[in-house]
Amino acid sequence: MMEVIGLNADVTIQQSLFYILTTLLPIMVIAATPLVLASTGELIVEKSGVLNLGVEGMMVMGAVIGFITAVETGTPVAGFILAAVAGGLLALIFGFLTQVLLSNQVATGLALTLFGLGLAALMGQTYTGIRPPQTARIDIPFVSDAPVLGQMLFSYDWIVYFALALVGAVWWFLNRTRAGLVLRAVGENHDAAHALGYRVIAIRLAAIAFGGACAGMGGAYLSLVRVPQWSEGMTAGIGWIALAIVVFASWKPGRVIIGAWLFGGVTILQLNIQAANLNVLGIAAIVLAVVTIGMIALNLRSMTAKNWIRVAFLGALALLSWAMALTWPAFRLDSAYLSMTPYLMTIVVLVAISGDRTRAALNAPASLGRVFHASS
Amino acid sequence: MIRLEPRLTPSRAMVWGTPALAVLATMIAGGILFAMLGKNPMEAIWTIFVDPILDPYSRDELFVKAAPLVLIAIGLSYGFRAGVWNIGAEGQFIVGAIAGSAVGLAFYGTEAIWLLPLMALAGMVAGTLWAMIPAFLKVRFNANEILVSLMLVYVADQLLRAMVAGPLRNPAGFNFPESRLFHDSAVLPLLQGFPGLTEYTRVHVGVLIALLLVPLAWLLLRKHLLGFNIQVMGSAPRAARFSGVKPAMIIYVCLGLSGAMAGLAGLFEVAGPAGQLVPALPQGYGFTAIIVAFLGRLNPLGILAAGLVMALTYIGGENAQLDLGLPRAAISVFQGMLLFFLLGLDILVRYRVRFGKRGAAQ
Amino acid sequence: MNTLLDISGLRKAYPGVVANDDVAFDIAPGEVHALLGENGAGKSTLVKMIYGLVQPDEGQMHLHGRPYAPTSPKDARAAGVSMVFQHFSLFEALSVRENIALGLDEAIAPRVLADRIRSVSKDYGLPLDPDRLIGDLSVGERQRVEIVRCLLQDPRLLIMDEPTSVLTPQEVNILFDTLRLLSKRGVAILYISHKLDEIRVLCDRATILRGGKVVATCIPRDETPRSLAEMMIGSTLADPPLRRAVPGRTLLKLTGLSLPTHDPFGVSLQGIDLTLHAGEVTGIAGVAGNGQDELVEVLSGEQLVEPGMIRLDNTPVGGLSPNRRRSLGLLTAPEERLGHAAAPDMSLTDNTMLTGRVRQRLSTQGFLKWNVASNFARAVIKQFDVRTPGVDTPARALSGGNLQKFVIGREVMQKPRVLVVNQPTWGVDAAAAASIRQSLRDLAAAGASVLVISQDLDELMEMSDQFAVIAGGKLSPTRPAGSISIEEIGRMMGGGDAA
């Protein structure tokens, strides 16, 4: 899977830092890329006022189609393109049902996920356990070979850069173009947009198809680069996390990258801790201590009694964890608990972002999830 | 030109006609799919939909499969009516099974009549508490219950792995990740000798309880204030608040109720057909139940029928897998299509489809 | 006389109703032409056809003498026809500039557009800041955005749909100045209204619609309000009987009622004091969006406040749930019929259960007595002359007037001690409005206290015994009806001096 430096290995601090910057960081970026793609697509969909919960289904379809195409043709590029097409087509089923037949968006999104997971499993049956052709890395002479920095920044395949460029393009589209303004208007108030003569359903269908294509590419990245192989249900909830990232990003493209990297980081760290056999209690103690000091530093001027109680509680927890870590140096948590962390973190992030109702209400598209039917 | 014209009153015929139409459409589309996979479509459809009904052993299995689906779907249907989207029933199912098993294993060897009820209680409480997490986070922090409840499925799945590898592992099981086999007092009695069932039936008491809960659920929905409030909440949230319904209460009740039902279903599964806690216990009932709930029109009686139809696709699908070599995943596709057709045809209930030149609807 | 727009033989039918039948009239350049008619007379359908939102089944339109058949608002705008809607087509979370850009058919660079907005709004005396969010603007300012949007396209015909229903009297005067200026510059205006005084002041000619047909064309200055009204309604009007209420004892008392809002575009209630007496109708006037909805939610119990802020018969009720308040006799009928006062997709029996359960004892031990509920629904339908096929019909299938009669009737027949109604006759035909007002007056005469919140000043003047104005979440002191002039009310509605 990946080379890992365990605690017991005899390494210097330079070696560790080098390992983190040149090996761990690139893996995090790679882990985040499917999320960047899928979330950016879903962001456009939601900005147009549609909630498509079928991201997981579209991703897994992209994963299987991309994989099959790449294996059969030997060219990963063809895989990514067909994965995008497949994701877009699947999304259009959702679009047809919700926009033309006015079905409930939540239920239809769920149906899309169930259907996609089944269809992908069916199509990919004979492709498990194969390695796909490798996706080309972009090699810039000298720069990519530069020590540390070169490997940190310029050692990726073209999809990583494409995903980042896509985020930039989406930002530009939404904030600087008339078409983007129209899309936001449709998501804000579809009745008014219709009254002004904009074709709400056509615009939404286009957004839905774009979202599907992005999710499909994200899925293909999973099966062609990140893992890389095909297995049934390999998305393992990443599509749902992509939905959470859109909320985390408050529907702003730039923040999608931050959210995706955060989740990519947690996923990789968690795997690293599992593999390295690190003492989880020690890590918990350090994290708690940092949070405690951060709270004091940020609220130094206005420390209320309530805040002091919180700080004291966190500090005590940190001390306790540290004491336990010292008592049982070989303590090791079942890897299953560590595997929970990306999902638990999604929940924590959702809670933190949604808590501020006023802000959430200002940023969320006002027509999100509402059924539109033009009557007279 | 085809256009849609809103009906002033929903069509009653279509309310129950569309699920039947959807099943029919799925059979046709499924037949095409099976033909593409190189199977004889008629034979496949026959194997899935008719054979299980004709064969007495499969008929029994139908009830065993339908029971958890019906239980979970009834619980979910309340929430779906109120616009509270619990899609993490699978997670509540798992923690229900874990908690029930823990109780059963804690009293390992104890022969007592109170053990099973205690296990059922533990399963329901665990399922309820698990569902209370998204409910609380929704009420207190406005966090989306769809995403939270779904994330908790993955957490519950890992929890199950940790449990069978750790505290609940069979001490004499060579470190294999599964629990002991439950002793007799912790296993649901079978309904052997029940009229209409075979000698080797696997139909257990849980099936009977699921069946008894159907009319109770219907009563709650149609005749009780709580059911009425849930319906108003889903139909017109602002009118519900005006009439005195507390949204937070509805969220807690709906999620709690569906969590309890899913937890109970989990316990029935582990103390029934499984007989021990294994990592492969969750088979996606929590997700399939979503289809069942919609297919049954969120009505307990409809859900009973829908649960049987869906169980049919499971049993028939297994048979088709064995007899015709139909891939297991084809059945998931089949079930997904069913939900698509159902949601698409739903429009016939509230709209009239007109052919002809453009007019009223623009 | 040269004509700008000429319409003849226009017909439009919807399933079960003919909205327009053989409609013909014409408009000259620079003319202010009124389109007058009751709700449901077919005015909206007619202008939607002119603006290209709906296509006619039969008939022709000519613009500048050439055939004119717009298939979309874009066509209409390209031909020089613009429209300001009664319910604005605005996007709250977008800026003024973005909103205007959306309404223009050509793309203009943001900076150029902002400059043009400033210059046009200055030219017509309609000050606007292009960078502000719509959500932060008052209703009057929002209308300005719509008008400026139209003016930027240099229209030849401007359609205005009930433009003054949301304005204070002062804002109405500003609007009229703008319209006269436009007319002087040769822009024709099609002015839709049912406010007779306005039409007599502003319009050169009037076309009167009834039941989808043109029943008369006249010069409004030569008519009296009464003759116009009779043409519109098609029968002679009877004056409402005058009555004098002797205020009884205090039933409901609001003291320092305050409620901060969490909605970024909502209104906070601030220090409201109000005393309601038995046997009395109290009117609260105000421009939409000044705290009326919030006040009704606080009184109904949907929003809780400190108990002592609301006292019913000296009992603090501010912290009680809607149903506890109902059992004590405080009932409400909110403005929004579909979705707030009634659940649109549920039957009339269900909707009776919605608010009647406590006072009419429609449940025991949580189990619902559906037959008693449908009997009560039937009684409401009979007493209030609600036209419906039966009690199983969903609320949305009823016409606006019939549903409003049902909603008001449902509360009145529960014999409230205090009844709060918001916009009781909004969007309701004249006959239904009259019967609703009568039932509210009867309720007060029987000893209850009625609080009517409305944007219709005429209605409030006609019904109220005492009178107050709400502006920016603050309520003025009450004044006896008849002791206050329209100008004074207008100033108070603008928030000038609430004291």
TrEMBL record, chain A:
GO CC, one annotated term: plasma membrane
Domain of life: Bacteria
Keywords noted in UniProt: Cell membrane, Membrane, Sugar transport, Transmembrane, Transmembrane helix, Transport
Species this chain originates from: Pontivivens marinum
Statement: the UniProt record of this protein carries the keyword Cell membrane: yes
Cell compartments where the protein resides: Cell membrane
Main location (coarse class): membrane
Name the UniProt record assigns to this protein: Simple sugar transport system permease protein
Automatic annotation (TrEMBL), chain B:
Membrane topology: Multi-pass membrane protein
Pfam annotation, one family: BPD_transp_2
Gene Ontology molecular function: transmembrane transporter activity
GO CC, alphabetical: plasma membrane
Keyword presence, Cell division: no
Domain of life where this protein originates: Bacteria
Membrane-spanning residues: 12-37, 62-80, 87-108, 114-137, 146-164, 203-221, 248-268, 274-294, 301-317, 329-349
InterPro entries on file: ABC_transp_permease (IPR001851)
Subcellular location(s) per record: Cell membrane
Keyword Transmembrane helix applies: yes
Record key words, sorted: Cell membrane, Membrane, Sugar transport, Transmembrane, Transmembrane helix, Transport
Protein name: Simple sugar transport system permease protein
Protein source organism: Pontivivens marinum
TrEMBL record, chain C:
InterPro entries the record matches: AAA+_ATPase (IPR003593), ABC_carbohydrate_import_ATPase (IPR050107), ABC_transporter-like_ATP-bd (IPR003439), ABC_transporter-like_CS (IPR017871), P-loop_NTPase (IPR027417)
Annotated membrane topology: Peripheral membrane protein
GO molecular-function terms, A-Z: ATP binding; ATP hydrolysis activity
Keyword vocabulary terms for this entry: ATP-binding, Cell membrane, Membrane, Nucleotide-binding, Repeat, Sugar transport, Translocase, Transport
Matching SMART domains: AAA
Domain ABC transporter: 5-236, 252-497
Entry's Gene Ontology cellular component terms: plasma membrane
SUPFAM superfamilies tied to this protein: P-loop containing nucleoside triphosphate hydrolases
Keyword set includes Transferase: no
PANTHER family in alphabetical order: CARBOHYDRATE TRANSPORT ATP-BINDING PROTEIN MG119-RELATED, GUANOSINE IMPORT ATP-BINDING PROTEIN NUPO
UniProt-recorded name of the protein: Simple sugar transport system ATP-binding protein
